[in-house]
Amino acid sequence: MGSDAKIIAKTGHKVDVxxxxxxxxxxxxxxxxxxxxxxxNGPYVVIKHQMAYHGQGKTIHCSTQMEAFGHEIHNxxxxxxxxxxxxxxxxxxxxxxxxxxxxxxxxxxxxxxxxKKLPHVILTADNTWDxxxxxxxxxxxxxxxxxxxxxxxxxxxxxVSFLMTVTVIxxxxxxxxxxxxxxxxxxxxxxxxxxxxxxxxxxxxxxNPSW
Length: 211
Prior knowledge:
This protein is of the alpha+beta class. Helices cover 35% and strands 28% of the residues. It has two domains: 123 residues, no CATH class; 35 residues. The protein contains four helices and nine strands, in the order E-E-E-H-E-E-E-E-E-H-E-H-H. The strands form three sheets. A four-stranded mixed sheet has the order 1-2-3-9, with no helix packed on it. A three-stranded antiparallel sheet has the order 4-5-6. It has a two-stranded antiparallel sheet with strand order 7-8.
């Protein structure tokens, strides 16, 4: 927690916090703290348990710690199509501000009067927070077991095309049969006509000899 919140309880435990380039801050107290925020329902006092208290700068909020307590975190910027807010299970929305690519919750320490009179919303659980409970290593076979293989992606369009071709052939089969029968009948009629004409010609030749 930074200077934008005030301590309301101490756990008696301490923690070392490691940062960029191996920089470590030792013996930070684990506390419960309160901050005043604006929500879609007006001003609220947010309560955050199991926080490492530094007392300087802006509070760094752990999205997974709040999600583990049941809140929905939408930390995608508006300009990228996101909602840019936190939504509680009760439907209270706390907006985020995006500055230099990072989301922030605008917050300040509440006065004693505000702490007593304004409604409270708890953002994190008061039992010991162990972030390692969310550990998960990427596994190609398990994490993407349901993803189609390259062979499946290649063969599926071919199979679909084949099935469509077979379907068209089956649909055209009755028409092809009728066409075939009609063709046979036409050829039969043509042959019969040619035979009749040949007989008539022979008959005329017999009746009118050329000599």
